[in-house]
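Reviewer 2 asked us to include a model.

Predict the structure of this chain.
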Amino acid sequence: MLKDFNLIATTIRGNERAMVNEMLFLLKEHLCDQEAAAVKTGVRGIVVARTSLDPYEVIEKFHNLLSERPYEFRFALRIIPIERVVPTELEAIKQVSLELATRIGKDETYRITVEKRYTTLHSMDIISAVAAEIQNKADMENPNEILLIEIMGAMTGISLVKPKEIISVMKEKML
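Predicted model (structure tokens):
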């Protein structure tokens, strides 16, 4: 698995190889990132990618491409930007999460979302450790920012994203 990934893509279980090819095609052909890499993770339904481009700009360009040419997205369910990758250890996750949380505006709300696979860490332990030190108001339904913690075995990807910065392909195709 790539240790320095900055995108996560989900797909239907069993379509990981096709999702790798789709990510490489989208990144290399549509965004002209010849340095892009994508691999299966060992977690069913999850692919990670590394782009030399800003992952948030990639998401914005993918949104535009999805609205103009939705047929280009055949296997992707969700595409998520990742800012930092750390070992799956509570202290490392907490430290990076709190660093990213400093960008939450004074009057903004937030939510912590933990998606975990192949770990013994408990979601509530992670949320409690991080939320205890964030002063902003939590909003589970309509937050301004989402502190996203994606655990995949020994590696964890962490991002601070606005809800629109996560591509949900099926939802967007319905619009």
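The beta strands are 7-10, 37-40, 46-50, 78-81, 84-87, 110-117, 145-152, 155-161, 167-168. The helical segments are 16-30, 55-68, 90-101, 123-131, 169-174. We have added this to the supplementary material.
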